[in-house]
Design goal:
The protein has 2 domains: about 1-115, no CATH class; about 135-305, no CATH class. It is about 60% helix and about 0% strand. The chain contains 14 helices and no strands. The chain has helices at about 5-15, 35-40, 50-65, 70-90, 90-105, 110-115, 115-135, 150-160, 165-175, 180-195, 230-240, 245-255, 265-270, 275-290.
Length: about 300
Amino acid sequence: MTTDISNSLDKLRQALGAANPPNEITQEDFDGGRDHLYRLARLSADEEVDGHDLCEYMNDLLYTEIQVPFLLFVLPFCLKAWSRDLRAGDLECAGFVDYFYPVLVKRGIFERHLKPTQGEAVLSFMRATILDEIDDQQGLYFRGYPSRPRRWIHAMTTYGVIAPDIERIWTPLWSVETVGRAIAAVQYISCLMYSKDENPVFAPYSREEGGGPPCLWDFDGHLYENRWQQSNVDFLENLFKAPERISEVLARAVDRLADQPEHDAAARIMADLPSRSRTLMDRCAMLPLFLATPGQTMDSSDWPS
């Protein structure tokens, strides 16, 4: 991990007030084995956690009573693994992330188990990590699966299920104040403009390589029955009421990329915008509905083409 992330984790531990594990581990285990709990309790702050231990712990949290002091100790290790998955596509941690999100949502971690200041510290770390990944975006052409933009797009989308303040990620993204944010904005807007087989940023899906553009309403993890929090739906509906705002964002992104290798590709997308305006308008109207629908029952056949 970089020094910046290590420092962020140290600040998170201070905010959670659990630099050390509780004297007694009373956390129940789900599958009859407690070794993973003892291994987690022995971790020092700079150690790499075993992904399998975290997966077992997520099952404990999902299906048994939660020992909050132990949760507070382990949470920074969970967020470190979550960050590795987002920032580096760490496959060892990917299985853990699939269970981490349901724990946060279905067990009401922020509502029932964390104090407001502790919850804000966790969410602040998540927002900063997503924005760090956005700031590091490079490239406006991707072929095959997985593509790096999928990680930040789905992390941001899933954040909208977890927390009610998606604007604290979206507004910095839409500002296009950094090269990475400009590139990320073009990546996202391309998914609003083009059909899945015509998107110049994401090559079409193939059986051999996978690929295709990210789905803008997919959540990471097993959140099949969940939806965006209403405040986030309201924010996006208001943001997308005037699709010309997206044109303005795209134009500023192209300007921001004037001296970058991605400029010509972004300029071509900007040139395509007038012919794609109807698709853009229809999708801006539909996307909040998709994100507000529990169970993700919407599929690509409902997506305006």
